[in-house]
Specification:
heterodimer; A: about 120 residues; mainly alpha; B: about 180 residues; 4 helices; 3 strands
């Protein structure tokens, strides 16, 4: 596998993490009602944001929709981190296997010592 | 040497992954949940997030300790080879590896306790205090073990040097 393949495989989970963080931050912002004033000036956009806000904050029993999204986002982020580390592991192992390292010390075990 | 080239990048990746989870878990997910007072089936989401973050951090830190053990053993062999002039024996390798392992584990535990305290505090205040006491005891035991191992080797080196000086003194006295 080339370095480009490795980089691609490592960067994909990183992109997923960035996307999850951006989405959760956006949902959090909408649910908290921190919408930029310019959005409120556009009726269609303000309506869409209002609907999203209502969906995210609507209680289902004692559960918030946003709480479920936050937990799901957290699990996806941790899974992506795990995938990234595993792929990096593979890259390191392949790199080290291709290296030509010579051991520069003599190991003297008991059998050799007694023979001498 | 190969082990060091293999373990150091893995250690860095595991530490960075644990740090990434800590930063995003604590600064993004916990902040949003706390500010909006989110609940799932009546349970607060903040301690739940902290527990999940804590478990995943424990997994990555556990993997880190495996790599630290490998690095310590490699360094132990390198030190034994350098001190023994290219020759090493099993007891030297064992003692130097044990000393390096203890020192590296103590440094890692001290550094990681900073991150864990924050997360543990989020789950339950008592857990953080309990973990702190355990970490202090573990660090003391690890350093004690390292000093013991180094002490054994330095005593042996001192004895070897003293024997050599005595032998030379005897030789010069015979002349």
């Amino acid at each position: 596998m080339t370095l480009e393949d490795h980089a691609q495989r490592i960067l994909t989970p990183l992109a997923i993490i960035a996307l999850v963080i951006a989405l959760i931050s956006f949902f959090g912002m909408v649910a908290a009602g921190n919408v930029p004033p310019k959005v409120k000036e556009l009726p269609a956009l303000a309506n869409a944001v209002g609907t999203l806000n209502a969906t995210l904050t609507a209680p289902i029993g004692e559960t918030n929709m946003l709480a479920v999204l936050v937990i799901a986002g957290l699990l996806i982020m941790i899974l992506s981190c795990y995938m990234m580390s595993q792929r990096f592991y593979r890259m390191v192992e392949e790199g080290v296997a291709a290296m030509d390292i010579e051991y520069d010390g003599n190991v003297v075990d008991d059998e050799e010592a007694s023979e001498e | 040497m190969r082990e060091i080239f293999d373990s150091v990048p893995k250690l860095v990746v595991n530490l960075l992954t644990a740090f990434l989870i800590y930063i995003f878990g604590n600064k993004v997910f916990t902040t949003i949940s706390a500010r909006l007072g989110l609940t799932i089936a009546g349970i607060q989401v903040v301690p739940l997030i902290n527990a999940v973050v804590l478990l995943s951090m424990i997994y990555f830190v556990y993997k880190c300790f495996g790599e630290i053990r490998d690095i310590a053993e490699s360094f132990g062999k390198l030190i034994a080879v350098n001190i023994g002039g290219g020759v090493m024996d099993e007891s030297e390798v064992k003692d130097y590896s044990s000393a390096m392992r203890g020192i590296l584990y103590a440094i890692a535990l001290t550094a990681l306790s900073y991150f864990f305290m924050d997360v543990l505090n989020g789950v339950h205040g008592m857990l953080a205090g309990l973990a702190m006491v355990l970490i202090v005891i573990m660090v003391i035991l690890l350093l004690f073990q390292s000093v013991n191992a180094l002490n054994r080797q330095f005593t042996a080196l001192g004895k070897q040097a003293a024997d050599q000086i005595l032998a030379e003194a005897e030789k010069s006295a015979k002349k």
